[in-house]
Amino acid sequence: MEKEKLLSIFPERLREAVTMSGISYRELADKLGVNKSTVSMYLHGKALPSLEIIVSVAEITDVSLDFLTGRKEL
User: Fold this and answer.
1) 2 three-state secondary structure
2) Cα–Cα distance measured from residue 34 to residue 6, given in angstroms and rounded to the nearest whole number
3) Is the pTM of this model over 0.85?
4) Percent of the chain with pLDDT over 90
5) In the chain, what's the furthest Cα-to-Cα distance?
6) Which of 74, 70, 26 has the alpha carbon at shortest distance from 45?
7) Which helix (H) or strand (E) holds 29?
């Protein structure tokens, strides 16, 4: 998947995953070991997380990698 496409899809999917999981963005940042500003950059499509972070987001929010990357719906 090309980076530009993932940058357009991931922020929306991240918002959905966090909302469904019931955690706050601050909690997500803490669990990922990053600053809240880093999560904000992911949410605004200004930065793309590493694969390790994407995997951690999937585990924390209990969604699939395919969902987070736009390959599948829930």
Assistant:
1) coil
2) 20
3) yes
4) 82
5) 30
6) 70
7) helix 25-32
Query: In whole angstroms, what is the distance from residue 35 CA to residue 8 CA?
Result: 21
Structure confidence at residue 1 as a pLDDT band (50, 70, 90): low
SS3 46: coil
Please name the amino acid found at residue 32.
L
Confidence of residue 3 (pLDDT cuts 50, 70, 90): confident
N residues, the chain: 74
- Quote the pLDDT of residue 14: 97
Is the Cα torsion angle 24, 27, 32, 34 positive or negative in sign? positive
